[in-house]
């Protein structure tokens, strides 16, 4: 099969592809707001129609929430790898609306010195990105009449609202949808023009506790002194979570953590990550994590224990002379390597309970989950293919990057379907996803389509 | 002047006095709620009319808030001490209403094994208590036609809502209202049946700060590790406020603090304070303040640094993977002895700022005040008279007690009018002031009236 003809078709039909993307972007598929339920349905229908138009057997599948879109290729070549493509058609809310320079659902092309961008809610997260894959498929179908490998589509409309229907749907449709690997296009490039493939994602442990001291809220005049103050005690507990070098002081916390191999570290050094810019954006003059590790390692390859919420007592204006009965704390840990969330939860709880003062009691939230880190096997042929395809397209060696975040879908593919994920995407740090004035670079869209075409071509050669 | 006849008159007219008290209690003078503005006015009118009925020149004085009640005695004896009586006619809100066993503004007498109580909002705080003084005056006027000493009344209707009109009114009426000493009836007895006079009140320093770290709320996946977490940093700061023995670790904090003289300590040991009951009520198995001091000393005679509010990040249900830009903390210190609130504020702020990590910033609330502790000169003749009067009435030696709280009016009398305060009251710990089902013991009312009659008689002998 000729790749050149496919790439030429992509170039020649870019305007049409942009018009199709605009069509999808005009649908107000805000999944978290029930007022937009019909719009989410409409976006699913749009995808079903579009996939049908290029010869896929596409269906909208009803859930208790927003529908899934599933598509198979009736004309798939035999004896080729079978890949699943995942994306999501829902978008974040648009408020505050007055901070948008253009209406969020009227996609607009803007010319910029560094190249055109398309501005609209969902342009980068994830409609623009998922359409890079569909457009690559369209070009193959048009030029060759069929795809180079076997493809199944699986797209959801609840990614921005906690995916309540996802796990039950995955469990119910395991046999139909399990493939060799999942391709996910919902991530970005480590820096502009540097094609990036995720080699590791941090896992996550969520926990939350209430420290109760007095039997009731007390008056600080009548009881200040003799009463245990839960706000002081929770602060003392939190202060024990880290040592003076920024290392987490919970016993056993680092079980399963290994330093990044020097070869990978060397590759990261050349991945184009701008530490100074990264820190400056956050208002930091230095990296505050574990001493001895760069900001990049701290973000991608080191575990963390962060307090995400802390509260108790009186938070209004002025003063209330209260010693509150309790204090509350929300914690998330980011996990790496082989860290075990269950063991870690037990270690964290032991750490807290071992340090409880007399007359204090801890209640744990029992509803919070944990997930292991994902470490990709980058020696798999799909990763080799991806690196080669991206390097060809972007004329710059693609890099395997860590990701500080935890992408739940990759964990579910692994835990429910036993399937690895390959994440590559073309977003940029300045795309303003989840914020007003979201945009996607037209270059990301165009070269993204071409990247997927090259990738599918390489996969067929495996 | 015969005291016995006055006491007999008090005994004989107790039923009438109770009916008058019920009349005042029926007025819904909730000062904090604008819906009850007319009721507050009505309570002031009620007091003016009642004081006029016993021969005082009483007036309602308009303020920008609720009115003051001021009364002078046109028939005051010459050459006697001149005392100011202070009380407040406003009451706390009554919610939650469904927790009341009786309607809060329909005063009800309840028989109990230990004696009758009158149940209503304000029965103890402060209508029942202020009426003990007025009824004592009534009995004197009836039996002798005039009071034994010169008396001025000053009653406010904003005590339960921050007294916004108090200081301007006091400044504007200093010459008219300054007396030898203020008598305040708004406190309780250290234990049932033990008449108590305040010999010291703790002062108060209020402060509040915001610790800012990141330039904006950050994602804990993208920035967890490298970013300074304000919730962790504020916890570390708070953990430095005390040492392991419960002593405040702020340099200079104890300047001006002295141990309680052994004689006073011995007196406190016999004051009837039940440490076990006091701690058990709060759910404490021990006193958590400074090691080496009893719960009573910790409450009355030791300074404290308490966190009254602490908050930052996400406090809702579930998890938000945020590293917030800032964290907030409200602090009050209780002061004793000669501690200087201004110096202490500077010391506290230095303590915090000296410990600030790189990339963190502190903003202090500049609107919060401080007040010194009050230490009464119990050798003054009025205190000697009070002790003698109370001991006679209650047939139990009256005790000088500390008070853990800070009673602002006593501070204002001192700072604005240069006038000492004598606080004696007849409330009990189980009166449920500020809570549903507030009550006042009929014994407190009856013997309270008799106590004031004895006190006024003693003052006249000075």
TrEMBL record, chains A, B:
Pfam families the record matches: M20_dimer (PF07687), Peptidase_M20 (PF01546)
Keyword Protease appears in the UniProt entry: yes
SUPFAM superfamilies on file: Zn-dependent exopeptidases
Molecular function terms from GO: metal ion binding; peptidase activity
Keyword list, A-Z: Hydrolase, Metal-binding, Protease
One annotated GO biological process: proteolysis
Gene3D superfamilies: 3.30.70.360, Zn peptidases
Domain Peptidase M20 dimerisation: 209-359
NCBIfam families in UniProt: PRK07907.1, PRK08201.1, PRK09104.1
Protein name from the UniProt record: Dipeptidase
């Amino acid at each position: 099969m000729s790749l050149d003809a496919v790439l030429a078709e992509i170039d020649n039909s870019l305007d049409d592809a942009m018009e199709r993307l605009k069509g999808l972007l005009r649908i107000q598929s805000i999944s978290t707001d029930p007022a937009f339920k019909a719009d989410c349905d409409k976006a699913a229908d749009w995808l079903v129609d579009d996939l049908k138009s290029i010869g896929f057997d596409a269906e909208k599948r009803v859930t208790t929430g927003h529908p899934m879109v599933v598509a198979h290729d009736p004309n798939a070549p035999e004896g080729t790898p079978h890949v699943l493509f995942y994306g999501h058609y829902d978008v974040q809310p648009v408020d505050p609306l007055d901070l948008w320079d253009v209406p969020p659902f009227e996609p607009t092309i803007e010319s910029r010195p560094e190249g055109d961008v398309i501005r609209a809610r969902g342009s980068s997260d994830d409609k623009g990105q998922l359409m890079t894959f569909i457009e690559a498929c369209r070009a193959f179908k048009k030029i060759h009449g069929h795809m180079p490998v076997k493809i199944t589509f699986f797209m959801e409309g609840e990614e921005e609202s906690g995916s309540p229907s996802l796990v039950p749907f995955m469990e119910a449709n395991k046999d139909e949808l399990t493939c060799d690997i999942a391709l996910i296009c919902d991530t970005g490039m480590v820096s502009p023009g540097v094609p990036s493939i995720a080699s590791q994602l941090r896992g996550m442990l969520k926990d939350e506790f209430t420290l109760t001291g007095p039997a009731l809220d007390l008056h600080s005049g009548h009881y200040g002194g003799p009463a245990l103050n839960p706000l002081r005690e929770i602060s003392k507990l939190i202060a024990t979570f880290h040592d003076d070098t920024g290392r987490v002081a919970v016993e056993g916390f680092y079980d399963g953590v290994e330093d990044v191999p020097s070869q990978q570290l060397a590759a990261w050094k050349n991945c184009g990550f701008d530490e100074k810019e990264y820190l400056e954006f956050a208002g930091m003059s230095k990296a505050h994590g574990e001493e001895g590790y760069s900001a990049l390692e701290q973000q991608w390859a080191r575990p963390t224990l962060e307090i995400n919420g802390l509260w108790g007592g009186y938070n209004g204006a002025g003063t209330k002379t209260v010693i509150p009965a309790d204090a509350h704390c929300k914690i998330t840990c980011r996990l790496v390597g082989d860290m075990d969330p269950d063991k870690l939860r037990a270690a964290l709880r032991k750490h807290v309970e071992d340090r409880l003062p007399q007359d204090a009691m801890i209640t744990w939230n029992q509803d919070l989950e944990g997930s292991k880190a994902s470490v990709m096997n980058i020696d798999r042929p799909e990763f080799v293919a991806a690196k080669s395809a991206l390097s060809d397209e972007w004329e710059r060696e693609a890099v395997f990057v860590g990701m500080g975040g935890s992408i739940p879908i990759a964990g579910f593919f692994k835990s429910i379907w036993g399937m690895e994920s390959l994440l590559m995407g073309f977003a940029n740090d300045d795309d303003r996803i989840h914020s007003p004035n979201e945009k996607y670079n037209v270059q990301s869209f165009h070269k993204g389509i071409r990247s997927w075409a090259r990738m599918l071509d390489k996969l067929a050669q495996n």
